[in-house]
Amino acid sequence: MKNILFVCTGNTCRSPMAEGLFNHAAERAGLDWRASSAGLFVMPGSQVSENSVAALGEQGIDISSHKPVQLTPELVGGADLVLTMSETHRRIIDDMISGAVDKVFTLGVYAGTAEEISDPFGSDKERYRNCMLEIKRCLDAVIKRLSEQ
Fold first, then answer.
1. Distance separating alpha carbons of residues 99 and 91, to the nearest angstrom
2. Residue ranges per domain, the chain?
3. Residue 23 CB neighbours (<10 A)
4. Residue 36: its pLDDT value, please?
5. Pick from 146, 149, 137: which is nearest to 29 by CA?
């Protein structure tokens, strides 16, 4: 089983949604991949956003039990692929962890769109839903790419 790690800022919005969407899609596609997620700056005691849970709930995916995880060099080292939500996230990991550059990409670049995933933090449910759809569009391309490998 190969591991993909999604990374965002606090691991409360975008990366947990990407993890849930990817695992759901990979299972349906029969891919031998499993996703996890982490954040660059996780606040102690933080929780997954209610609007992230609601947006994925509309897709039949439950991420309510997700607990934010701080990114560590060990998590990056244990991943076969690391996908970030923005170029800034990618650069921070590149600066923080030497030797990971060959497996760390933005989600948009890896999907072939080069788009950055907008941060819905603190916004209304509609913005979270739109963010989830951005992630889903990219993940459709990622799933296709991984299926062809």
1. 13
2. 2-148
3. 18
4. 98
5. 146
**Is 48:12 a contact under the CB 8 Å cutoff?**
yes
- Name the CATH superfamily for 2-148: Response regulator (3.40.50.2300)
121-125 contacts: CB < 8 A, separation 24 or more? 121/9, 121/10, 121/12, 121/13, 121/49, 123/51, 124/51, 125/51, 125/54, 125/55
Q: Is 31:109 a contact under the CB 8 Å cutoff? A: no
**Nearest residue to 80 via CA among 104, 96, 97:** 104
What is d(CA 19, CA 4) in angstroms, rounded to the nearest whole number? 9
pLDDT tens-digit series, residues 108-134: 999 999 999 999 999 999 999 999 999
Catalytic residues: 8, 14, 119
